[in-house]
Specification:
The structure holds 4 protein chains of 4 kinds. Chain C is mainly alpha-helical. Chain C contains 17 helices and no strands. In chain C, helix 13 packs parallel to helix 16. Chain C starts with 5 loop residues before the first helix and ends in a 36-residue tail after the last helix. Classes of the chains: A alpha+beta, B mainly alpha, C mainly alpha, D alpha+beta. Chains B and C meet through helix 1, helix 2 and helix 3 of B and helix 11 and helix 12 of C.
Chain lengths: ~200, ~70, ~525, ~280
């Protein structure tokens, strides 16, 4: 390899080495790129709702669908409400367990949350839909999810959810579950809690 | 590659890549491929064909779901 | 496996003793070290496997506690995949690719030395994690979040070990690509290249493409564990399923990284002992490329139980079923190579034939697993354990042994004992099937994997599997005897050690001199 | 599919009937009690038969060569090394076979995803290491309880003889009526678990922070057992799932009994109890 005739080869080798090393680096970046990519796919297909808070807060709805969309009275969808707590000493439940709605109809429901501890606690709720497909047809105009909620000791709070089921919902879906999970935020600022998203 | 390689055109590259998707290739055709193809072009054609493959499969799935739902 | 006797070192200013091995840039030395390292790792992973089988010999907890059991299954997987099988193939590549293409050494000899010497520290870090507070990671070799976020310090050590091994693999892969593309002897055109070089070239590209993705995935876990991010934590807007997508984007091509070089080895051996050229050489190359490309579009078939929408399940089901086609082409080609040949069954051919047989059985269960509804039923059961051991033990490992017996004469200068080689093969294949065939039944009947204790109806098959596992483990000791005997002496091997072996590696003397092809040979 | 399945079943008569004759499955999938599980069973049998044919074909040729084309028997090697027509044939034929397999599988996949119009919705929550059940809608709405392994420690450690349902028994099984469509909502509290009842053909991961849905309609009364199927930490092997399928009347009686019990505990226990209880404890007060 060190013989003089091989100089051309050595530089060829080095060029190929650099290219391959670069592609390895690009693929390392691609691994991280999969994160926003996955979110975009989820957003587009409604598989999982891992949206950014601001996207969830109704902005999306206002932007891409008119509020006065036609109410489809020929179909009724049963919307169930579910609540989960993730290691949080609260009481969290929907005020009504389910409602029957027509697609396109504006619906207002409430969740009730109570801090049962003698200290203020901050939590944050994440929504999820079953079947997953329903997520993209579920337009929330008002929602407490992704906003931090700090409850004083013993405080009880009623939190509204206002939503419209998109009339484009596939005809074979007639039961949707909206589920919220409350997580405790232990002394975390908003910035760090969304740290994963920022990268 | 002692003899000066002749550069294959886009179609020839695409044809070789499509045969590779099929997984069968005649030896003489392979010798021609190996002699004429530009590796970078093969990679580009491969990625392109892969994307087309995925899109076709997605369309088939959409069609199947449409048929099943109807 | 030391291929070099001191007299061959004369005239080369190589340091002696330990320093020689630490500083060597010779592809043969490095190949030998890779193989010794991977065999040691294979034995350590095997000890973990036998501990697992001892615990599962009968219902109830006897040998280990559940927590330690989970550490055993996790480390068995990590050690076998990253410590045993992958380095073993890199070792083969180091030894054989320069010899096969008529190059004097690998393209980047010094980088080659680094990529090997990164491995022992990584292995120490990995195995040492058993002694960390809280023990080794117990999250399964897939390290699924959020379970892996819960783990103790052992998890961090495993992550760093994976990082180091990943860097090593990438450097090895780059070296192989450059060597294959740039260092071929005059006249050794791509289409004349032995199939082993072809499969390794494609494998190396796969490695460069996916190892960094794995590094990214485990880095994200590390960040979730220590830096307050929430890539995989729903509370911060992340998604645990995303980890599985990223992991399997690496993980599925990884499966082919571990099997494609095996295809290459088998494609070298079958024609030699059939005394007939490989059937459909061109198709073999194209089928390999096809498998490599398709392997990027099937990853989520490992995740059917996570609950994808129907469209997703169908997409990945169809794509996965299509992979069976090029794989089938390969098996058909091997059988067609044997057809109307003039066969003889020396140990390498025995292992290669055994490879085709058991690998195809693994292929069948793979096809069955591709059907999403059936997969949902057997996912995370012993059926899947049986499936991937048929593909990885009977596939990759058997091909590695086939290759080792095939090239031992070239490495050591002596023919391996035919009797011991055959004994090793027959013990291995019988005990292998005793171990893993009953696992199909266990999985179908409903035994989940990664459990330290099980319901009573699974007792008899588990007992059989445990007996088989100990038999299989002990059979591997025969290989040590074969290799030691082979190094010490025995029948002198000719340059062309097997009657109709083809290829440049058989034109140099056996054992291969320390430096080969310093003057590039001219091919035809 | 049904006919193909039956033909297939005939081919494998011995092993299949063996499996069906025994209380526990030994060689094959567990006896199905839902339509979906039945379809999976048929499909699996069909696949086995197809694989068997390919196996006989490929290895018939291979072993013929192994035994007859040996050098020691004086075989002289032929020199063909390519035949594009044959290669194309053995590429096309597998593709056609695959299409034949894909069709029934596609129908089952779509049927498995159809969770609409359930009679009862139950939420199952995975905890390390037990299951919480929560009847969200339908008969029994509001019932909730935890379901944990009830096999005594001594049996596991070997100081007591093991019972029949060793490791597959829980203190409070999930109870559902026969012939009703049950929609399961799955979620988890800590790490990923997986809710699996083989006889129903249902396996669905329970993912913390998200819900997933699956469904089953059990055709036969009885007790059906499964396990957590996703590694979830130390006691992953010790969190079984037991589903008791009851007739409509017995189910109604069970619901009444549960309601009475719940009313009694609510009046007895102060509501503050809820915070120290495990997360699945009634936060309904």
């Amino acid at each position: 390899m060190n013989s003089p005739v091989d100089n051309g080869l050595a530089s060829d080798n080095r060029r190929l080495l650099l290219r391959l090393a670069l592609s390895a680096l690009v693929m390392f970046g691609f691994g991280f790129l999969l994160v926003p990519f996955y979110e975009k796919i989820c957003e587009a297909t409604g598989i999982n709702n891992v949206l950014r808070p601001e996207a969830e807060a109704g902005a999306r709805f206002a932007a891409d669908a008119p509020l006065n969309s036609q109410v489809d009275a020929s179909r009724s969808i049963l919307v169930q409400f579910d609540a989960n707590l993730h290691d949080l000493p609260w009481r969290f439940q929907p005020v009504q367990r389910s409602v029957s709605v027509h697609p396109g109809q504006l619906v207002h429901v409430e969740y009730e949350v109570t801090n049962t501890r003698a200290e203020p606690i901050t939590g944050q709720a994440v929504p999820s839909y079953g079947p997953q497909l329903a997520g993209q047809y579920f337009r929330k105009l008002d929602c407490f999810c992704f906003a931090q909620q700090t409850l004083a000791p013993g405080e009880r709070r009623i939190m509204p959810v206002v939503f419209v089921v998109d009339p484009a919902l596939p005809s074979d879906v007639n039961t949707i579950t909206l589920s919220y999970t409350f997580f405790e935020l232990k002394g975390r600022s908003a910035a760090s809690s969304a740290g994963g998203r920022a990268s | 590659m002692t003899d000066a390689p002749r550069r294959a055109g886009f179609l020839a590259t695409m044809r070789a890549v499509l045969w590779s998707f099929f997984g069968v290739r005649r030896r003489q055709a392979y010798i021609d491929d190996a002699g004429s193809l530009n590796p970078l072009a093969v990679v580009v054609a491969g990625v392109l064909a892969g994307a087309v493959f995925v899109i076709v499969l997605v369309l088939i799935v959409q069609w199947v779901i449409g048929v099943a739902a109807a | 496996m030391a291929a070099v006797t001191p007299d061959q070192l004369h005239g080369h200013h190589a340091p002696g003793g330990v320093m020689r091995w630490l500083t060597t840039t010779n592809h043969k030395d490095i190949g030998t070290m890779y193989m010794i390292f991977s065999f040691i790792m294979f034995l350590s992973g095997g000890v973990l496997a036998l501990t697992i089988r001892a615990e599962l010999f009968k219902p109830g907890l006897q040998v280990v506690q559940p927590e330690f059991f989970n550490q055993l299954t996790t480390m068995h997987g990590l050690i076998m995949v990253f410590g045993a099988i992958m380095p073993a193939f890199v070792g083969f590549a180091n030894w054989m690719i320069p010899l096969m293409i008529g190059a004097s050494d690998m393209a980047f000899a010094r980088m080659n030395n680094w990529s090997f010497w990164l491995l022992p520290p990584a292995a120490i870090l990995l195995i040492g994690s058993f002694f960390a507070p809280g023990g080794a990671t117990a999250a399964g070799w897939t390290l699924y979040a959020p379970l892996s976020v819960q783990m103790g310090m052992g998890m961090d050590m495993a992550i760093f070990a994976i990082h180091i091994m990943g860097v090593s693999s990438i450097m090895g892969a780059i070296n192989i690509v450059v060597t294959v593309l740039n260092m071929r002897a005059p006249g050794m055109t791509m289409m004349k290249m032995p199939l082993f070089c072809w499969t390794w070239l494609i494998t190396a590209y796969l490695l460069i493409a996916v190892m960094p993705v794995l590094a990214g995935a485990v880095t994200m876990i590390l960040a979730d564990r220590h830096f307050g991010t929430s890539f995989f934590n729903a509370a911060g807007g992340g998604d645990p399923v995303m980890y599985q997508h990223i992991f399997w984007f690496f993980g599925h091509p990884e499966v082919y990284i571990m099997i494609l070089p095996a295809f290459g080895i088998v494609s070298q051996i079958i024609p030699t002992f059939s005394r007939k050229p490989l059937f459909g050489y061109a198709s073999m190359v194209y089928a390999t490329a096809s498998i490599a490309i398709l392997s990027f579009a099937v990853w989520a078939h490992h995740m059917f139980a996570t609950g994808m929408p129907a469209a997703g399940q169908l997409f990945f089901m169809y794509a996965t079923m299509l992979i069976a086609v090029p794989t089938g082409v390969k098996v058909f080609n091997w059988v067609a190579t044997m057809w109307r040949g003039s066969l003889s069954f020396e140990p390498p051919m025995l292992w290669a034939t055994g490879f085709i047989f058991v690998f195809t059985m693994g292929g069948f269960t793979g096809l069955i697993c591709a059907i999403a509804p059936i997969d949902i039923q057997v996912q995370d059961t012993y059926y899947v354990v049986a499936h991937f051991h048929y593909v990885l033990v009977a596939g990759s490992l058997f091909a590695l042994f086939a290759g080792a017996y095939y090239w031992l004469p070239k490495w050591t200068g002596h023919m391996p004992s035919e009797f011991l080689g055959k004994l090793h093969f027959w013990c291995s294949i019988v005990f292998f099937n005793i171990t893993f065939f009953p696992m199909h039944f266990l999985g179908l009947a409903g035994m989940p994997r990664r459990i330290p204790d099980y319901a009573l109806q699974f007792a008899d098959f588990n007992a059989i599997a445990s007996v088989g596992a100990f038999g299989f483990g002990l059979s591997q000791l025969i290989f040590i005897v074969v290799v030691v005997k082979c190094i010490r002496g025995g029948e002198r091997a000719a340059a062309r050690s097997w009657e109709s072996a083809e290829g440049l590696e058989w034109t140099v003397p056996s054992p291969a001199p320390y430096h080969t092809f310093e003057e590039a040979p001219v091919v035809r | 599919m049904g006919r193909a399945g039956r033909i297939a079943a005939l081919c494998l008569a011995s092993s299949v009937s063996l499996a069906h004759a025994e209380p526990h499955a030994r060689y094959n999938l567990q006896q199905p009690v839902t339509g979906i599980a039945e379809q999976i069973n048929d499909m699996h049998t069909l696949m086995l038969v197809i694989c068997l044919f390919i196996f006989v074909g490929v290895f018939g040729v291979m072993f013929w060569a192994v035994f007859n084309h040996r050098k020691s028997k004086g075989a002289v090697a032929a020199h063909f090394h390519e035949n594009t027509a044959v290669e194309i044939a053995w590429t096309i034929i597998p593709v056609l076979i695959l299409l034949g397999m894909a069709w029934p599988a596609t129908k089952t996949v779509i049927a498995m995803k159809d969770t609409s119009n359930p009679d009862i919705t139950v939420k199952a929550t995975g905890y390390q290491w037990k299951w919480g059940y929560d009847y969200l809608q339908g008969e029994g709405e509001g019932i909730r309880f935890l379901s944990a392994l009830s096999t005594p420690r001594e049996q596991i450690e070997g100081s007591a003889p093991k019972g029949d349902a060793y490791l597959l028994e829980v203190d409070h099984p999930l109870v559902v009526p026969v012939g009703k469509k049950i929609r399961m909502l799955l979620t988890a509290n800590d790490v990923i678990h997986s809710w699996w009842v083989p006889a129903f053909g249902v396996k669905q991961d329970a993912i913390p922070g998200f819900i997933r849905d699956a469904w089953f309609r059990a055709d036969k009364e009885g007790v059906y057992r499964g396990n957590c199927a996703e590694l979830c930490g130390r006691d992953h092997g010790f969190m079984p799932i037991v589903v008791q399928v009851l007739s409509a009347e017995k189910y109604a009686a069970w619901v009444a009994e549960q309601k009475a019990k719940a009313a009694a505990t609510v009046s007895a226990a102060p509501p503050a109890e809820a915070d120290s209880a495990p997360p699945a404890a009634p936060d309904k007060g």
